[in-house]
Design a protein that fits this description.
mainly beta, Methylamine Dehydrogenase, Chain H, 6-stranded antiparallel sheet, about 5% helix, signal, WD40/YVTN_repeat-like_dom_sf, Oxidoreductase
Length: about 350
């Protein structure tokens, strides 16, 4: 834990001392590290590694120094869960399955995973998870009983409790999130934002104790449309993207930016690149100007807060995480890759 805190402090110092935005990207180099019959939609940057989880119960890590892959398979009775959400604290790794039953595992004794939450009700489907700090975390899922399914932990992930609908805003019937990349939740400080299938933003300013809902202009008239992914560079500057995965070239009303903490949003690059997006990330050290978007259509990049974009690669990915201002790891169908931006 001490090593992790030291690394985190060093990264904070580097980030705070950055005064010159990173140079705009013009190309990428992609190095495949892992190829197998596993679809991976969830990545998590940890100390010295990137953790992943996917279909067939498979999960593991990529060593950031050697590129070595360590993979295992997690079963539950006769099931091979499909994991689409992961998270971590300094001491533990977590993974959450999609579909019924919902199964949430954390690292346990002797390197094995321990089941800490199970939900087996009709309609249960969790999409993403993230942590505010070492003790408090959040998992978000589709509407049940009139509100989003929101799980909270206050004890470092040892136990999880579902927030009662009486304590949450009303959901639109059928409202949920797309479990496309584990990026439906964005966290900055004590705040969290959740993007939904209805093009709305669920917001908490105080680590899940109070909630309110904001609207966006992101298109959501069909069940396959809405916000698939969002990211915040600060507690004010955020981007939400999505579209329709059945119409990947659709570019209308699928990208929006906020500069007031999510209360209001404006469309960006409307009618232009990129189309359907499963994962969006701000480029570290770019002062919020650099944004990367990925999907099974490839990798796109903006150097001006999403106003203009260019396609850097046709290589398909579901999700991506930066480990520096020029290096990221991406995952998709049957692959994990190292992506170098230049």
């Amino acid at each position: 834990m001490r090593a992790f805190l030291t690394l985190s402090l060093a990264m904070m110092i580097i980030g705070c001392s950055q005064t010159v935005p990173s140079k705009p990207f013009s190309k990428v180099e992609i190095q495949d590290l892992f190829k197998d019959s596993v679809s991976i939609r969830a990545l998590e940057v940890m100390e010295g590694s990137v953790a992943f989880a996917g279909t067939g119960g498979f999960f593991g890590t990529v060593d950031l120094h050697t590129g070595q892959i360590r993979a295992k398979q997690q079963r539950y009775d006769t099931l091979n869960p499909e994991f689409r959400a992961v998270g971590h604290t300094a001491s533990d790794f977590f993974m959450l399955s999609a579909g019924r039953p919902a199964l949430l595992f954390k690292t346990g004794n002797r390197g094995l995973m321990e089941l800490v939450y199970k939900e087996d009700e009709e309609g249960v489907f969790y999409d993403a998870m993230a942590f505010w700090n070492e003790k408090e975390g959040l998992a978000a899922g589709d509407e049940m009983g009139g509100c989003l399914s929101l799980l909270i932990t206050r004890d470092g992930g040892s136990s999880w409790k579902k927030i009662a609908c009486a304590d949450l805003p009303d959901a639109i019937p059928g409202e949920g999130a797309f479990a496309a990349s584990n990026t439906n939740i964005a966290i900055v400080g004590d705040k969290a934002w959740i993007g939904t299938t209805e093009g709305r933003i669920w917001f908490t300013p105080d680590r899940g104790r109070n909630w309110e809902v904001f609207t966006t202009p992101v298109l959501s008239t069909e069940p396959t449309q809405g916000i698939y992914t969002l990211d915040f560079y600060s507690d004010q500057l955020g981007v939400a993207m999505g579209g329709d995965y059945t119409l990947p070239d659709g570019m209308d009303a699928n990208k929006a930016l906020t500069e007031d903490g999510g209360r209001t949003w404006k469309l960006i690059s409307d009618g232009n690149l990129p189309g359907y997006t499963s994962c969006v990330r701000f480029v570290p050290g770019s002062e919020g100007n650099g944004i990367v978007a990925v999907s099974y259509n490839g990798i796109a990049y903006s150097a001006d807060k999403g106003e203009h974009w260019k396609k850097l690669s046709d290589e398909p990915f579901y999700t991506l995480r930066f480990v520096s201002d020029t290096v990221a790891y991406a995952a998709g169908k049957f692959r994990i890759s190292r992506v170098s931006f230049q």
